[in-house]
Amino acid sequence: MSRPAAIVLLSGGLDSATCLALALEDGFDPVALSFRYGQRHAVELDAAAAIAAAAGVEHVVVDIDLRAFGGSALTADIDVPKHDSVDAIDASTVPVTYVPARNTIFLSFALALAEVRGARDLYLGVNTLDYSGYPDCRPEFVDAFARLANLATRAGVAPADDEGPIVVHTPLIELTKGEIIRRGIELGVDHRLTTSCYDPLVVDGQPVACGRCDSCLLRRKGFAEVGRTDPIRYVDEQGVTP
Q1: DSSP per residue, 21-78
Q2: Lower Cβ count inside 10 Å, N or C end of the chain?
Q3: CA 108, CA 106: separation in Å to the nearest integer?
Q4: Does an H or E element contain 156, and which?
């Protein structure tokens, strides 16, 4: 019996890699969907490709250029904020690394692909506990998009008799970064393949994480919480750490 299809948004980070593993565990035949959107940390696409290959799933990459709008340190000539400690991250305000409407745009593409592939399940690795204050990571946003998905699609308006509604799965939304890492370890996620840095350097042809952007700090905090060493490389005052 064939497994039902699902669309998993795969950025190349540890959250989305864990989401992909969870979709497989849930019994789906996932299609991983990534975007080349003009992001300064485009090395994440190489990570996404490696993660999809390791999982043995189809990987679709869509080209869109959000640099046309700007407004974010990830798509415009704006410095990525750096901190010395995770305690300096202010999740009460929307940071400059927020890309306007990014998750809305990405989910819309995922919904279109789901209609073509006959999928009724979308997976999104958003999180509300250890995150940087992005408005499109909140449960209210996810619920609103799910309602839209069931109003604005042929599959939502006229489902087959044996089909349920379109569902947006957010299995990590109430987990800490440490809990996400632990779950990934349990599922066999190879964290060496993942990348999280917003402003990576390239050393000897390989990406090296800055270690001080919000995403790096939250990732390192998560690995510390589970008593594991993060397997990716970071820049420190002496150069590059293994």
Answers
A1: HHHHHTT-EEEEEEEE-S-TTTHHHHHHHHHHHHHT-EEEEEE--GGGT--STTTSS-
A2: N
A3: 5
A4: helix 154-157
238 in any annotated domain: no
Q: Would you say residue 220 lies in a domain?
A: no
Residue 45's domain comprises 5-195
* Host H or E run for residue 219: helix 214-225
What pTM does this model have? Answer: 0.94
Q: Residue 64 sits in a domain of what CATH number?
A: 3.40.50.620
pLDDT in tens, 28-75: 999 999 999 999 988 999 999 999 999 999 999 999 999 999 999 999
